[in-house]
Automatic annotation (TrEMBL):
SUPFAM superfamilies: Class I glutamine amidotransferase-like, Homeodomain-like. InterPro entries: Class_I_gatase-like (IPR029062), DJ-1/PfpI (IPR002818), Homeodomain-like_sf (IPR009057), HTH_AraC (IPR018060), HTH_AraC-typ_CS (IPR018062), INH-QAR (IPR052158), Tscrpt_reg_AraC-type_HTH (IPR020449). Pfam families: DJ-1_PfpI (PF01965), HTH_18 (PF12833). This is Helix-turn-helix domain-containing protein. Residues 225-323 form the HTH araC/xylS-type domain. It comes from Marinobacter albus. Keywords: DNA-binding, Transcription, Transcription regulation.
Length: 326
């Protein structure tokens, strides 16, 4: 039986703790019960806090701990999981320097380390993600990149695995992280059974369909912001880099440098994202023909745009409408 340690701290997201505990504790159990078979538990779990005291989560729920991550009275963990930070991230990092130091020492342990959502900030703060691929909630990815430039941040991915460190993306991605870890430690059959029992879409690979273009505006370059406002109303037209530079009052070289620094993208990539976002909105809220929607953002080649749309959202336009259309 494998041991999973979940790290508890004040201000954590309760569901990211209790939910993943449920997944591990019921792997090999729920499916067997559904089919009238003898349950075969695969994992034991333990919630650990700094001193073994209860932790008060962001929703006001207090969770009892099984022990301290700083002690040695409990079984060594095969997997250590850092849940989502629900409170302000900077406050949690400042209040948990002891945990950060303890995590930094786990690099030499045989345990697999994992985080969900903004829990990746604690792994990165401990220096565990430098030079590694990681993901976090898409809405905090710019903040993550600025604070940890040595980390290869992949916010479009739902789960990243680099060596013995796994990270899951936003919010409820602990589902996907848990299913992945169950498969890694208990095998694909147990993982498939668990996903079916919990009615989890185990085929998800991207959090891109849930992201918002608004995250690209979390910067303070007023010139770039004005150009973004201009693009908001002109994205359906053919726009050259020279025209954008004139609109911004910058040279093309300066525009490329400042736009990339502010948004993380080139102007052309940002323009593509605007078009993708516009099409996404209409796929979610209207029943207009897909070809008509795509033509409306300046693309005559529907197949070309469909490839672009899939690149940024992980889904073809038709599949996106089927999943998210209202």
């Amino acid at each position: 039986m494998h041991t999973v340690s979940i790290i508890g701290f004040d201000g954590a997201l309760a569901s990211a703790i209790t939910g993943i505990i449920d997944l591990f504790r019921l792997a090999g159990v729920t499916w067997a019960r559904i089919h009238g078979e003898e349950p075969e538990p695969m994992f034991r779990t333990q919630l650990l806090t700094q001193a073994g005291a209860p932790c008060r989560c962001i929703n006001g729920i207090t969770l009892l701990a099984d022990g301290s991550w700083n002690g040695d009275e409990l079984p060594a963990a095969d997997i250590i999981i850092v849940p989502t930070i629900g409170a302000p991230i900077a406050d949690i990092l400042a209040r948990n320097t002891g945990l950060v130091h303890w995590l930094s020492r786990q690099d030499a342990s045989p345990s697999l380390l994992a985080s969900n959502c903004t829990g990746a900030f604690l792994l990165a703060e401990a220096g565990l993600l430098d030079g590694k691929e990681a993901t976090t909630h898409w809405g905090f990815s710019n903040q993550f990149r600025q604070r940890y430039p040595e980390v290869i941040c992949r916010p479009e991915k739902l789960v990243t695995v680099d060596g013995d460190i796994a990270c899951a993306g936003g919010g409820m991605a602990w589902w996907d992280l848990g299913v992945y870890l169950v498969e890694r430690y208990a095998g694909p059959e147990v993982s498939r059974q668990l996903a079916k029992a919990f009615v989890i879409d185990a085929g998800r690979t991207s959090q891109a369909p849930y992201s918002a273009l608004q995250a690209k505006r979390y910067h303070s370059d007023s010139t770039v912001l004005k150009l973004q406002d201009w693009l908001d109303t002109n994205f359906a037209h053919t726009v050259s880099l020279a025209e954008l530079a004139r609109e911004a009052g910058l040279s093309e070289r300066s525009l490329l440098r400042r736009f990339k620094a502010a948004t993380g993208d080139t102007p052309n990539t940002y323009l593509q994202l605007l078009r993708v976002e516009h099409v996404r909105h209409h796929l979610e809220t209207s029943r207009r023909y897909i070809d008509e929607i795509i033509n409306g953002v300046g693309y005559e080649d529907v197949s070309s745009f469909s490839r672009l749309f899939r690149k940024h959202t992980g889904l073809a336009p038709g599949a996106y409408r089927s999943r998210f259309g209202r």
